[in-house]
TrEMBL record:
This is Oxysterol-binding protein. The keyword Phosphoprotein applies. GO terms for cellular component: cytosol; endoplasmic reticulum membrane; nucleus; perinuclear endoplasmic reticulum; plasma membrane. Its main location: membrane. Residues 65-161 form the PH domain. It comes from Allacma fusca.
Length: 764
């Protein structure tokens, strides 16, 4: 690995004060600052510059001096802002701790390889950012003289380290960045390690044989050779003992893993049982509908719905994604949760379960207590069912070279205005991704019926967490919507209807609104995307709102930050979430913390939080994994209130799409006449990508974007600003009192007559 990060408070990023002083010391006279000037940086372009590395054919074998000192390092949680940390540069390896004394004792908070990291600088602000794949370090150094000194030292150490890595001349074991042993996560890993141990034992036996064949020195002046033989034999004995200990440790871990395997099997059985119940419930519900269809059509309908539910095993992301073993608290949670589910499924006469039931849905007419909503199920959906796979798999990762050429000029900048290669995209748009947040809308249905306000806000928290679950498998970005683009989704099976519209282009703002049987949901999102060298960070700006008219409650919350790591290695890309989410509702507040992945910890993708009352007293504890499950209470008696559903077969080959994601871009012949021409399903470049036509999609994407630029230029010339059709500006119901985009409610009425009286601007 190129970096190590093992600080419990997960330092990463977040702007704050600059109050701490920074100093640096070197073992020799400080080098002169690099001659690069700043006179040419007076344009509006980004001031970020990439610290160049070793060029092809270049060598740098001069060992740089050790360099160390205090710098300011940015942290995200729990103490945001810049904090003093002691950094040490030694032969291209960077380590840091709270003080020089801590570093000298080996008590370091993190380490990374300068040769394998992308280092960007911003001299004007004294900033240095280091993207080491596993984490991003944001540093600030002042005064300017000290900053330039660090810059020059980083350059020298980086060049030397790259020289060593290129020519394979590691002269000392201390020059390598030592990675911790990776815990065994699968039987395959265990077999590979057993094989390696056998090879090592064979080599040791061979070495012992060689040592035995060396004759003992007879002369007194051969003391050095005699000492060497004695020490060599001692080393062999020690190595054999180490190998034996490693083997014993592996066997012990495999035994411990047996219990986890059994728990996993139990969860599989419970999940499949729940899916079977859901399928039977759906068939029963559909069979009870009086649709006046011919018998053959009704049979086909039930068959299509039944086939859309997969029998695949429950996908435990933490165990199958090369993650480390669970902690004891996680194991206790699974144990208590399994017992709870078994009781709730096997006892028909028991009290109503607190587990969210995904099967009990209301009749197929949507009603809302806050409006005169009364939509019947679209008949074509009942007759045709929904698709269960995409037309073509995702393309192989070939975009890295061209992508680097684009991104290297935009480090630290907002990428929302930058046109990206289509191979970086998935065949869904931002508006459709917003709809995916309702994949577990049954949590809102359950919350709307819950009489306890504490339970309601806990379910809202579970809903907020569930909206991120599909991100775990997604490493491509959605298409940026065109101005005026829309997307509707009517889900008779889930009991809601949804509409989204791109209401602003600069900055890009998407607004959506959905209504279920007893709730309303709306949000607006502005995505700020930044590139840091090897990682892309997506920071959503905006709020999510949920209203329960029955209880007169209005909930609002912000969203967490998403980061895609290993951007230039598509097979190794992975997603992390971090940040704090605050859910407000009257006298109750729920604070959630999405924990940034730490390289040295086996606790990954965690989220935890508390529900507090108006006096600040904690009245409920929450925890879980955003890619797996969410619990209320404390282990081992915690209740699972949400668990992620199973993934489709071969999901990794199809953009990591969930079942809902697969369905969102489907455009059936019957639906084609019922949705407006501005709907995302009609977007041609996205459709071509979905069909696997990469060349056509890239060409069409350029055409579509150019048409949008032409429309914007025409509006500017005519002084005719764009006006969204379905949303308007409002100052209602926001935390800060800022204007918000509000749904006007006319879309569904206009939809009834096929949008005949509405002028829709051609987008494609």
């Amino acid at each position: 690995m190129s970096s190590k990060h093992h600080e419990s408070d997960t330092e990463a990023s977040c702007e704050s004060s600059e109050g701490a002083a920074t100093t640096a010391t070197a073992a020799s006279e400080p080098p002169k600052p690099p001659p690069r000037g700043r006179g040419k940086r007076k344009t509006r372009r980004s001031d970020w510059e990439i610290l160049e590395g070793l060029k092809e054919g270049q060598t740098y074998d001069r060992v740089p001096k050790k360099f160390e000192g205090f710098v300011l390092k940015k942290r995200k949680w729990p103490l945001k802002g810049y904090h003093k940390r002691y950094f040490m540069l030694d032969k291209g390896v960077i380590v840091y701790g709270k003080s020089g004394w801590d570093c000298a004792r080996g008590k370091i908070h993190g380490s990374l390889d300068a040769g394998l990291s992308v280092i960007t600088t911003k001299p004007r602000d004294g900033r240095i950012d280091i993207d080491a794949e596993d984490c991003i370090y944001h540093l600030k150094i002042k005064p300017k003289e000290v900053y330039m000194e660090w810059l020059e030292q980083l350059k020298q150490h980086r060049l030397y380290r790259q020289h060593i890595l290129s020519f394979k001349e590691l002269s000392s074991p201390t020059e390598e960045v030592v990675s911790p042993l990776t815990p065994i996560s699968s039987p395959g890993d265990s077999k590979n390690i057993d094989k390696e141990i056998s090879l090592v034992e064979k080599d040791l036996s061979h070495l012992e044989g060689i040592l035995e064949t060396i004759p003992q020195p007879k002369k007194d002046d051969d003391n050095k050779l005699r000492d060497f033989l004695v020490l060599a034999k001692e080393v062999v004995v020690s190595l054999r003992g180490i190998v034996r200990s490693v083997g014993n440790g592996i066997n012990a871990r495999e035994v411990e893993g047996g219990a986890a395997t059994l728990r996993h099997a139990l969860n599989q059985a419970l999940q499949q049982n729940a899916e079977l119940k859901s399928r039977l419930s759906r068939i029963h519900r559909e069979a009870s509908l009086d649709l006046n269809y011919p018998a053959a059509q009704t049979s086909d309908t039930i068959k299509s719905y039944s086939s859309s539910m997969s029998n695949s095993e429950y996908y435990d992301a933490m165990e199958t994604n090369k993650d480390e073993d669970r902690t004891s608290s996680d194991e206790e949670s699974f144990s208590s949760e399994g017992e709870g589910e078994a009781d709730s499924l096997n006892s028909e006469n028991s009290e109503p379960s607190k587990f969210v039931d995904h099967t009990h849905l209301e009749p197929s007419v949507l009603t809302s207590s806050s409006s005169n909503l009364n939509i019947k199920i679209p008949e074509p959906l009942l007759r045709e069912g929904r698709r269960t796979f995409l037309p073509a798999p995702a393309p192989s990762g070939t975009e890295a070279p061209s992508l680097w050429g684009i991104l290297r000029k935009n480090i630290g900048k907002d990428l929302s205005k930058i046109s990206m290669p289509v191979t970086l995209n998935e065949p869904l748009g931002v508006l459709q991704r917003m709809c995916e947040e309702l994949e577990y809308s049954e949590l809102l249905d359950t919350a709307s019926k819950e009489s306890d306000p504490v339970e309601r806000i806990a379910l809202i928290a579970a809903f907020a967490v569930s909206g991120y679950s599909s991100s775990f498998f997604r490493t491509h970005k959605p298409f940026n919507p065109l101005l005026g683009e829309t997307f509707e989704c009517v889900r008779e099976d889930k009991g809601f209807r949804f509409l989204a519209e791109q209401v602003c282009h600069h900055p890009p703002v998407s607004a959506c609104h959905a209504e279920g049987r007893a709730w309303q949901f709306w949000e607006e999102t502005q995505l700020k995307t930044k590139f840091w060298g090897k990682s892309m960070e997506i920071q959503p700006i905006g709020e999510v709102h949920i209203v329960f008219p029955k209880w007169g409650e209005h909930y609002s919350y912000n969203k967490a930050t998403t980061c895609v790591h290993n951007l230039f290695s598509p097979p190794n890309r992975w997603v992390d979430l971090y940040g704090e989410v605050s859910i407000l509702s009257g006298g109750l507040t729920c604070n959630l913390t999405f924990v940034k992945v730490s390289y040295w910890s086996s606790r990954k993708h965690e989220v935890f939080g508390t529900v507090v009352n108006a006096e600040g007293v904690t009245i409920r504890n929450l925890y879980g994994h955003w890619n797996e499950a969410f619990y209320v209470g404390q282990p081992p008696s915690a209740r699972c209130i949400w668990r992620m559903g199973t993934m489709p077969e071969d999901a990794s080959k199809f953009y990591g799409f969930t079942r809902l994601a697969i369905e969102l871009n489907e455009l059936s012949p019957s639906l084609r006449d019922k949705i407006p021409g501005t709907d995302t399903r009609f977007r041609p470049d996205q459709r071509l990508l979905e069909e696997g036509n990469i060349v056509g999609a890239e060409s069409m994407k350029m055409t579509v974007e150019q048409k949008q630029r032409d429309r914007r230029k025409k509006r500017e010339e005519e002084k005719n600003p764009f006006q969204p059709l379905w949303f308007k500006k409002s100052k209602n119901q926001t935390r800060s009192g800022e204007e918000q985009w509000e749904f006007m409610g006319t879309y569904w009425e206009v939809r009834k007559n096929g949008f005949k009286n509405v002028e829709l601007e051609p987008l494609w």
